[in-house]
Amino acid sequence: MRFAPINTDTFLKVLDGIAWRNGATIEDIAHFCGFGASTVRNAVNNASELKLVSVGRNGSSGRVTIEPRFRAKLSRAEQLAIIREQLQNSQFFQIICEFLARGEAAEAAIRKAAAISGKHVCDIKYALPLLHLAADVGLLEKRGTKFQISSSIPVAPTEEAGILTSQLDTEMAAVLFVSCRLGSDIFHSLEASEQTRICRAVRLHSSDPEKSIEDAGKALESYLRLVGHNAGHDMKGFNGVVEIADFLGAPARMVIHPKHRDLIKATSTVRNCSAHERDKVTNQPWRKTSEMALTNVLWTLHILRSVALWIKNREQIL
Known about the structure:
The chain is mostly helical. It has three domains: 8-74, Arc Repressor Mutant, subunit A, CATH 1.10.10.10; 90-149; 170-313. Helix content is 57%, strand content 5%. It has helices at 8-20, 26-33, 37-49, 76-88, 91-101, 106-117, 128-136, 171-182, 184-187, 192-203, 209-230, 240-248, 258-275, 290-313, and strands at 24-25, 53-55, 63-66, 140-143, 146-149. It has a three-stranded antiparallel sheet with strand order 1-3-2. Strands 4-5 form a two-stranded antiparallel ribbon. It is elongated. The two termini are 39 Å apart.
């Protein structure tokens, strides 16, 4: 990975030029924007790292197409919002933020993020412009030569710090919260789909409790299927998280502890209340509150962490 040093205003102008001339070559875009081809090439390289553009097979002479949301005539605020979202969705950047939140220097955070994400960074200096861009869109703050998480993003919120407020309604805040609760090693051992669902469950607990409960349940079920598969079992025939938990927690196997099985059944009850429009006893729907959604996602996070520690070291931690 090589993120070129280019100021944010120039980067935005090139992206706007691509939006106007979508599907053009770098030379055509450079002529449209009034920049040199090397400047545009650097901007396109950076945009490609953020999955904002794609380039045809012929390299610099290939056609450049931009992500559909990045349209011509967007305001600067709208442009920055899209870049901010792409950064927040980048696993590499997420991991950098995790280590920055733990007090690591930028260079160490980049080095560790590259190792975890599998990114090839031949020199730390080639990733530093990414952090400057993140500061310009409000995700990071630069104090002297040091980068830190923006003060607007809670690093490790707790109930006492206002977890029931909208503090967790951004992607980065949710990622940092989940990573802090699980531990970075456990968080990054999850499949990408599981990470997405559990973070979304945190983010939506207030605005969409029903979706939050659904996502937390799907993340847990997917993780347990993978646990069973890694233990050498065929998990295709099991329907739902309760059947999976009963199988994995059986005394003859104890892939997970039998107590985990009971804990998992509690989350299944909440998920079932959310999944069915009407209760079969009363024929009335359950109203899902943000407090229940938050409790459910916290419970799910504790189960994920507890199961992971049991599998790794046979530790019994709740």
